[in-house]
């Protein structure tokens, strides 16, 4: 299937590894020009070189911390300058700290809000004028299954991913007449460093092995395995494409059946 992404210009956040990297690679394979950002210059440059070599696509690395309002403005301005336009925004951040509710201070909450929620607010606001100039665009937020089914020990993520979902559903309606489509993708348990870190943190809290935590998680997934990052990224690429031209305001979970809700 031709996803109609040839020549489209995309920003993918937190793209030096994990879901962001896989998403940037999938978009590049479909012919998109991609600006990728992360906080670590070394890892970002390496990822950009690897994706460019694998796909032949234009990959623009921009060091930025999306929790910073100043960095967000610079990222969008620089991406638009180097790519020539912005058609697609993939909002993505590393997950916030794990732990019980009473373990987090006001400062922990403020940091998580800036990183997870306000980054989406600021980035979306910054790209909308560019998308209007192009006659449309795609804003896709990488959230989590915790937005639909809270995950034990992830109170910061549970609260803020739900906030992103509410934001996305609201602005999807506002922007739909301008052909700017807004959706969320909610990854389940995927083979990333984040999932390994969470398993190790749970193991320490419970006094068991990380392998036991991982096995317990996999047992709850109907498909009986973790997702690959490629499986996740290809769904994001579809939503970013011209083939998903009538999909907006939705949250699509990619979880192997883990979430038990009807919707």
Care to describe what's here?
- Helix 1 packs across helix 8 and helix 3 (69-83) runs parallel beside helix 4 (106-134).
- Strands 3-2-1-4-5-6-7 form a seven-stranded parallel beta sheet, with helices on both faces.
- With 263 residues, it is of the alpha/beta class.
- The model has no long low-confidence stretch (mean pLDDT 95).
- It is 49% helix and 14% strand.
- It folds into two domains: 9-188 and 227-253, NAD(P)-binding Rossmann-like Domain (Rossmann fold); 190-226, no CATH class.
CATH H-level superfamily title of the largest domain: NAD(P)-binding Rossmann-like Domain
CATH architecture of the largest domain: 3-Layer(aba) Sandwich
| Count of spatially separate domains | 2
CATH T-level topology of the largest domain = Rossmann fold
Are there runs of 5+ residues with pLDDT below 50, and where? none
Short structural description:
This protein is of the alpha/beta class and 263 residues long.
Question: Could you list some keywords that capture this structure?
Answer:
7 strands; Rossmann fold; globular; alpha/beta
Question: What's the layout of helices and strands?
Answer:
Layout: E1 9-12, H1 18-29, E2 33-38, H2 41-55, E3 59-63, H3 69-83, E4 88-91, H4 106-134, E5 137-142, H5 155-175, E6 180-187, H6 193-206, H7 210-219, H8 229-240, E7 251-254
Parallel strand pairs: 1-2, 1-4, 2-3, 4-5, 5-6, 6-7
